[in-house]
Design brief:
Elements lengths: L6 H26 L14 H10 L5 E3 L5 H6 L4 H8 L33 H14 L6 E6 L6 H12 L4 E7 L2 E2 L2 E2 L19 E6 L3 H16 L5 E6 L17 H8 L3 H11 L4 H24 L15
Parallel strand pairs: 1-2, 2-3, 3-7, 6-7
Antiparallel strand pairs: 4-5
Helix pairs in contact: 1-2, 1-9, 1-10, 2-7, 4-10, 5-6
């Protein structure tokens, strides 16, 4: 494990992971009560990827997410109530309730947005990296996407261009083993995603995405190389979504036995175990988790009480 991560830092990372889990569980409850419309794509089980990567990045590094972006938003430290408000279409949301789950950005936090198009954020991050290089900045653009997006033309075109121009971009594939209902074994001829990197003269690595400490460690090393001008890299993190593709997914394409087996490697359980091995008391671990849940509960109450936004206020101030 990475000795540079202190026990207090790991406990903070654990608390943030619990916040993401509680946030999405709260969203699920709001859907069931009819208080949240549309659809949403949860990252339950994948929290270690978002927290591990983003904790290794600078606040000034630019992030581009995908349709499963709640974890990335909260891992960057965005205000939970404002994110919740955006999903509810409230004026308090980061985009005034007009962006929703799949079109939420926060430019003041260097978050270029979630994206409802499979692979749609990859060229955006590549463009951001070009801008960073043009400005002679030592910041990096980080693109999050799933294994399904690696079969899109945007993936291959972006990696090729980024390598040709040695752009400061880290491509992060959260391989949760399924593209919607299609297992990666039936959609990816190479079996894994990182092995595609050498085709574009790029360094690629595959790692255990369940281990937040390992994710932080390998991301830190990758970002250091990219910042040093060694060119872009592809980082593949093997993970698993414990939920369906979206809230209406009955998960008929995989067995409950498989899900139970993968749940044994729940990143929250693994991180709590690591904390105990470091000597952190169970009381402190439980207190961190409870604080995270209370923050999410308070944020949900604030978002529910906020005034409506979205289309009703889309033209506010436009002609002022």
């Amino acid at each position: 494990m990475n000795d540079l991560i202190s026990s207090s830092d790991l406990l903070h990372m654990y608390q943030r992971m619990v916040s993401i889990r509680a946030f999405e569980e709260t969203l699920s409850g709001l859907f069931s009560k009819g208080l949240l419309g549309g659809t949403s794509h949860f990252c339950i089980g994948q929290e270690s990827c978002a927290v591990g990567v983003i904790s290794a990045a600078r606040e000034s590094d630019w992030l581009v997410s995908n349709h499963r972006g709640h974890g990335h938003l909260l891992a960057r430290g965005l205000d939970i109530a404002r994110v919740m408000g955006e999903l509810m279409g409230k004026l308090s949301g980061y985009c005034g309730g007009r962006g929703g789950s799949q079109h939420l950005c926060a430019m003041d936090r260097c978050f270029l947005g979630t994206n409802g198009i499979t692979g749609g954020g990859i060229p955006i991050a590549t463009g951001a990296a070009l801008a960073l290089k043009y400005r002679k900045s030592d910041n990096v653009a980080i693109a999050f996407f799933g294994d399904g997006a690696s079969n899109q033309g945007t993936f291959h075109e972006s990696l090729n261009m980024a390598s040709l121009w040695k752009l400061p971009v880290l491509f992060v594939c959260e391989n949760n083993l399924y593209g919607m209902s299609n297992p990666v074994s039936k959609s990816c001829a190479s079996g894994t995603i990182a092995v595609r990197a050498p085709a574009y003269a790029m360094h690629g690595e595959t790692h255990d995405g369940f281990d937040v400490e390992l994710v932080h460690e390998v991301t830190s090393a990758a970002l250091a190389r990219v910042r040093a001008g060694q060119g872009p890299e592809l980082l593949e993190l093997i993970t698993y979504r414990q939920c369906g593709h979206s809230k209406n997914d009955a998960r008929v394409y995989r067995s409950r036995e498989e899900e139970a087996h993968m749940a044994e490697r729940d990143c929250l359980l693994l991180t709590a175990k690591s904390l105990r091995q470091r000597g952190v008391s169970q009381e402190d671990i439980d207190a961190a988790a409870e604080a995270a849940r209370q923050d999410v509960a308070a944020a949900a109450e604030a978002a529910l009480a906020a005034p409506a936004g979205g289309r009703e206020h889309a033209l506010d101030g436009l002609f002022a």
